[in-house]
Design a protein that fits this description.
Blueprint (H helix, E strand, L loop, with lengths): L8 E13 L4 E13 L3 E5 L6 H9 L7 E12 L5 E5 L8 H6 L4 E4 L3 H4 L6 H12 L4 H14 L5 H4 L9 H12 L6 E5 L7 H18 L2 E5 L3 H7 L2 E6 L2 E7 H6 L4 H8 L51 E2 L6 E2 L22
Parallel strand pairs: 3-8, 3-9, 6-7, 7-8
Antiparallel strand pairs: 1-2, 1-4, 4-5, 9-10, 10-12, 11-12
Helix pairs in contact: 4-5, 5-7, 7-8
């Protein structure tokens, strides 16, 4: 994790809502989330599978699967105009196939998909796909684009890049495919890299190599990273700030050190408590969060985490929705009645609900 420095804001997301209308009803994949990403900083977005993490990343790039779309909210992207001055574009108000989005997508903001094997075309070489991306955003010849592709493959540590550029994705190992995906994402020097579970399908050694590579590239290029993962260990190692998501909403956010050492939301505490510790010799079962994430069509009333919460307050958590507010004296924000109780309601966290 990098030392805190003063940076300019690059991306601001305000109350983003991304819905998927279906025959059974509306799936509220993202239902009101806000956060910021600064230049050169790393934001970690964590939560269990099904919490809407990947949908947030795809919403920023307007590459949602149909019939999904941004229903409400702002996605404010700061970019440079032709005269060199800064301007702010609300991505949420742009059509997915508009000229503005085609310019931002790939050139300003790039995405590393979760599984590169299914993200690359199996009938085109790695080089051809990289060259297409480069020529889409840069006025260069085919030969220049190929030279740039070889240079990028070399920069991410792929051996024999001049040979690999003419190979297909199925000819590469999982680690090399992920490196090639990173190389393609960096082909136009993006200001923001969205990494969606970049190490999930890799072995532990290759995971460490990919994370080291991302750190090196971030330092060299000064780009920001939005790291989407369920792995809190990766967040602790890589991120400056964190957003904890549950059922499409942010339940806690703040600097990584503050959130990890003093988690305020029962869901965050449960996630951290379930991480294996290297300390202690006792062999015991790891604690887990009871229950599962509700079905999107069966969202609980009030606080969406209330059916699984050890600090559930009957008559409050099941009937009111807690606001996402700042914690006094800290940089953290939390959505929980333990810290922002309704008037006249006294709350006390259980022993299980307090941080270790």
């Amino acid at each position: 994790m990098t030392e805190a420095v003063k940076r300019e804001n690059l991306l601001t997301v305000n109350d983003l809502k991304t819905y998927f209308p279906t025959d059974e009803g509306v799936v509220k994949a993202v239902d009101g989330i806000s956060f910021k990403i600064d230049e050169g900083a790393t934001l970690g977005v964590v939560g269990e599978s099904g919490c809407g993490k990947s949908t947030v990343g795809r919403s920023i790039l307007q590459i949602l699967d149909k019939p999904g779309g941004v229903e409400d909210g702002e996605i404010l992207w700061r970019t440079d105009s032709l005269d060199g001055t800064s301007m702010v574009v609300d991505v949420a108000r742009q059509r997915p196939n508009s000229k503005t989005m085609r310019s931002i997508r790939g050139q300003d903001i790039a995405l590393i998909f979760q599984e590169p094997m299914t993200s690359f075309s199996p009938v085109h070489t790695i080089g051809n796909q990289m060259m297409e991306m480069i020529r889409l955003h840069r006025d260069v010849s085919k030969a220049e684009a190929k030279d740039r592709s070889i240079e990028l493959l070399q920069s991410v540590g792929i051996p024999n890049p001049a040979q690999r550029v003419d190979e297909y994705s199925f000819q590469l190992s999982g680690g090399l495919r992920q490196r090639a995906m990173i190389a393609m994402a960096l082909s136009c020097d993006p200001k923001l890299l969205i990494a969606d579970e970049p190490t999930t399908a890799l072995d532990v050694t290759t995971q460490a190599q990919i994370l080291d590579l991302l750190r090196q590239l971030q330092e060299q290029n000064g780009m920001a990273i939005m790291l989407i993962t369920h792995n809190l260990g990766v967040i602790a190692e890589m991120a400056d700030d964190i957003v904890v998501m549950y059922l499409g909403r942010a339940v806690e956010s703040g600097p990584v050190d503050e959130v990890f050492h003093n988690p305020q939301h029962p869901y965050t505490r449960g996630l951290l408590r379930s991480i294996p510790s290297i300390y202690g010799s006792d062999i015991k079962r790891l604690p887990s969060i009871t229950g599962t994430i509700p079905h999107p069509f069966n969202r609980p009333a009030g606080c969406t985490f209330s059916p699984r919460c050890p600090d559930f307050i009957e008559g409050t958590c099941d009937s009111n929705e807690p606001a996402f507010k700042s914690m006094d004296g800290t940089s953290q924000m939390v959505s929980c009645f333990l810290h922002h109780p309704p008037q006249g309601v006294e709350v006390t966290a259980t022993e299980e609900g307090t941080s270790d």
